[in-house]
């Protein structure tokens, strides 16, 4: 049976390629998502010098990884992912498994 591990990574500081130094399996697909940039403007002194302002920016880089695996290897892959450290990034894991028999396999058995 086939299983998929989907990882959505959002990096805030350094480029995302620097954050991922760990070796990925060869059957991993990388999908780059659009980057976003947010600017914040803050008044230094709202009463005296209104024209004096500071600007801060936050760059968010996103990437989506899909790892295909078998269900009996799912525990090993999850343990491997838990041990990886991705500093300066948020990541979200999603697991999906195919649990039903295919119609073709069922017809072959009958």
TrEMBL record:
SUPFAM superfamilies, sorted: Ribosomal protein S10
Cross-referenced InterPro entries: Ribosomal_uS10, Ribosomal_uS10_dom, Ribosomal_uS10_dom_sf
Domain (Small ribosomal subunit protein uS10) ranges: 6-94
Cross-referenced Pfam families: Ribosomal_S10
Key words of the record: Ribonucleoprotein, Ribosomal protein
A GO molecular-function annotation: structural constituent of ribosome
GO terms for biological process, alphabetical: translation
GO CC term (a single one): ribonucleoprotein complex
Organism superkingdom: Eukaryota
PANTHER family tied to this protein: 30S RIBOSOMAL PROTEIN S10 FAMILY MEMBER (PTHR11700)
Family: Belongs to the universal ribosomal protein uS10 family.
Name listed for the protein in its UniProt record: Small ribosomal subunit protein uS10 domain-containing protein
Organism per entry: Malus baccata
The organism's taxonomic lineage, starting at the top: Eukaryota, Viridiplantae, Streptophyta, Embryophyta, Tracheophyta
């Amino acid at each position: 049976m086939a299983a998929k591990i989907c990882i959505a990574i959002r990096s805030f500081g350094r480029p995302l390629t620097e954050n991922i130094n760990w070796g990925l399996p060869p059957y991993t697909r990388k999908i780059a998502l659009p980057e976003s940039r947010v600017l914040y403007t803050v008044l230094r002194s709202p009463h005296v010098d209104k024209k004096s302002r500071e600007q801060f920016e936050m760059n968010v880089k996103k990437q989506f990884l899909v790892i295909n695996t078998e269900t009996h290897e799912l525990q090993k892959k999850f343990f491997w992912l838990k041990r990886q450290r991705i500093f300066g990034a948020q990541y979200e894991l999603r697991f999906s498994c195919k649990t039903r028999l295919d119609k073709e396999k069922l017809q072959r058995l009958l």
